[in-house]
């Protein structure tokens, strides 16, 4: 079961599928953000809209096939809960629109997904493992405070690819007449 975004002139983000078995407590099922391999437009993601979500209540949060889960300032998301299921950095993305309700373990390991964020503080070591990626949100600077070591393992990425200004724009654009 999928809820893919459109593939037209403005490709959209994945919808959300919630599945719960009879054996699971109410609200403790599995949330899936799966875009069926379709590439959504830049900055397009799946968020909880206006309803705060505690992602820790779910048995699993699956982000796959170019799904992009956005965590807002109203949400609660814990990287310590162990319920995040991803594929790799090219097909699973977590975008932190805010880190207000986010819990990072110490040490923190960016695993098989891309973690996009703006400002974040980590109390302890951070490792970007293979095949993980740590990247700024499109159009926003990334400001990290790591009270420990930041390690990018072989096969991991710390990337700003595609996050800069268009040609001849931005503070370092230069003079086209020169």
Provide tags for this entry:
single chain, 178 residues, mainly beta, five-stranded parallel beta sheet, four-stranded mixed beta sheet, 16 strands
Head-to-tail CA distance between termini: 56 Å
As a percent range, the share of strand residues is 25-35%
Number of strands: 16
Q: What structural class do you assign from the helix and strand content?
A: mainly beta
The neighbouring-strand order within the major sheet is: 4-7-10-13-16
Helix share bin: under 10%
Overall mean pLDDT:
88
- Into how many domains do the coordinates divide? 1
Biggest sheet record: 5 strands, parallel
What features would you describe in this structure?
With 178 residues, the chain is mainly beta. It has one domain. 0% of the residues lie in helices and 32% in strands. It contains no helices and 16 strands. It has strands at 17-19, 30-34, 60-64, 67-71, 77-78, 84-86, 92-96, 102-103, 108-110, 114-117, 119-122, 126-128, 133-136, 143-146, 150-152, 157-158. The strands form five sheets. It has a five-stranded parallel sheet with strand order 4-7-10-13-16, with no helix packed on it. Strands 1-2-3-6 form a four-stranded mixed sheet, with no helix packed on it. The protein has a three-stranded parallel sheet with strand order 9-12-15, with no helix packed on it. It is globular, with a radius of gyration of 17 Å. 28% of the residues are buried.
